[in-house]
Amino acid sequence: MSAGAKTTPALGPQTIRQHEASQKKGLDHVAHLRDILSFENENSNVIGTLLEELAVPHRRTERWKYSPVGGFWKEHKPVACVTIADSACEAQPVPGLDAYRLVFVNGTFDPSASDLPIAAGVVCMPLSEAVRSGLVQREISSVERSDWFAALNGQFAGEGMYLAVEKAVELDRPVLIHQRQQGAGVPTFLRHVIELGAHAQAQVVNWSSASSDASGSVNTLTEVHVGEQAVFTLDKVQDESGEVHHLAFEAVDQAANSTFKIHTMTIQGAWVRNDLQICLSGQGCDAYLNGIFLPTGKEFVDNHTTVDHREAHCTSSESYKGILYGQSTGVFNGKVFVRPDAQQTNAYQQNANILGSRQATMNAKPELEIYADDVKCSHGCTIGQFDDEALFYARSRGIGEDEAKAMLVHAFIGDVIDGIAIPEVAMEVRHRLSEKHDWDRWDDANLL
Amino acid sequence: MLTINKLKASIGDSEILKGLDLTIRPGEVHAIMGPNGSGKSTLASVLAGREDYAVTGGKADFLGLDLLEMDATARARSGLFLAFQYPVEIPGVSNINFMRAALNGKRAHEGLEPIAGKAFLELVKEKASLVELDGRLRNRSVNEGFSGGEKKRNEIFQMAMLEPKLAVLDETDSGLDIDALRIVANGVNSMRSSERSFLVITHYQRLLDYIIPDFVHVLVDGCIVRTGGKELALELEERGYDWIKETVTS
Lengths: 448, 250
Hints:
heterodimer, A: 10-stranded mixed β-sheet, 8 helices, globular, B: alpha/beta, Rossmann fold, 6-stranded mixed β-sheet, 4-stranded antiparallel β-sheet, 10 helices
């Protein structure tokens, strides 16, 4: 979590050349974006310096080893479509979900498609408005100081959601953020800022979709502060057609005895990286990080998570499950820090993967760094194939092979989907997965 | 029901079944006995359509269908059932949903609509009582954490649910205590009818005290070398397999 990415360790000449070439590509990209985007951060000078000083990731950068970033350097275009009405897409992607809604199309807030909460003790509005009215000040977060792409977000993300829930206030409905990527070569930057006071409760669903002709890139940074004893859940659903490169950072800071739950459900996306940094800054926090990813074709899905146990008596529980089809590639990197003061830590991490094809690739790396002595930490990581014995057993009972596979997949990822707190979201995730993978014959919702 | 002619099957480079002949008519119960490694379980696997085995010769006719041309799913849907020697655990799939998918697969094959929820539950209740499978086991994941006896009872429950025309029981008696053996045998006996046949593969005669066969075959080195009535099983129990091996080689 230190700004270690700034320095380049002693490297061979080839790596140094790669580093220099990458640095140039990154800064050329910044110049290109300046030409086509209107927003610039008020701290532009500081961030500009960060963008020069931080290392632009390339394949010899440890944290980016398996995540090719070349797609980000492609030519982008100025934003055209900015309303959901123009995009021929539903504003509300989750049937039956009773939720407040903020719709962003190509990074621009669409007020006509949105439905903001108006309730005592709740402030929810586009970030630009919150900054203008002085409700929030843009500061440079620690993730921006350590990651080049996060700094890039700092430079260009002028819009997003600002949500503040006051002490002891419970938001009566979930807030749905629908971010839509529409058309070719669009550069989208979003910054969401979420603050929960002590004992507050809120649920946010972050749904991202894209048109089939969509390309370009999405760079989202969500900053969350969960106050003492507050409870916050974030359900991310990524269902993007087209060729979008999607990079999402979640930087979460938890105060004492707070609870944070995140589900990251990657249904489809050409290139997706989720980078979660959870900081347990008070005693007695609970953090739950769960995710599933089922890439097909040449899709790429990367989940990087960091849980930083800074204080005692905290629990973190993490479960990521992937099934990789076609020539897809998956990455899981789960870092758990247990600092010297974090006694009585209970940290659990599981990453289980099934390779559904011979051409699929999974790169998995659990990383535990434990500096306290009275802790319980466990992790498990598996990469396997479909259980042939179970498949034959099912077939010998008259269940078709595809249906049997779908059944095993549901059994494998079902517990993660069932963990989603909002039933309508869980159901829609199942539905979309069934559609993508043609699982209509095995639909748990229709069973007993 | 089933006519097998000169069936040959191998796994890897080794030939296990070396020209096996067997005819089973409707309503008959056949027992296949034999020493370890004679090919008993291979026969069961080949009949059920396990792809690990390569069929290298011979024919198998099941109800007028070319059995060896069908995949495992089609065989099951056509009325063949294999009770596994080692039933497989499937974590995360409830026993009851598993059976519903199986039953509806068969019904679709027969051109029937999927079974309604209530009718299905009644059927489950009725069939589970045959083998004293309690509700707890019905709702648990398939075979997960079941005892050896519970797994075998679950096999017979599945058989009862699917009402096959031909049931192959692969060493269903292995790992059963005497009470479980009686429950399993009662389940099988209650399903005996003039239209349904059984092929009971066993190492020991004990099971045949409870499931009385019409024919007993002795399988040695991939071929059936002797066929008799139920008294043949008693003779084998008393004298072992060596005397048969000797008569075959001489």
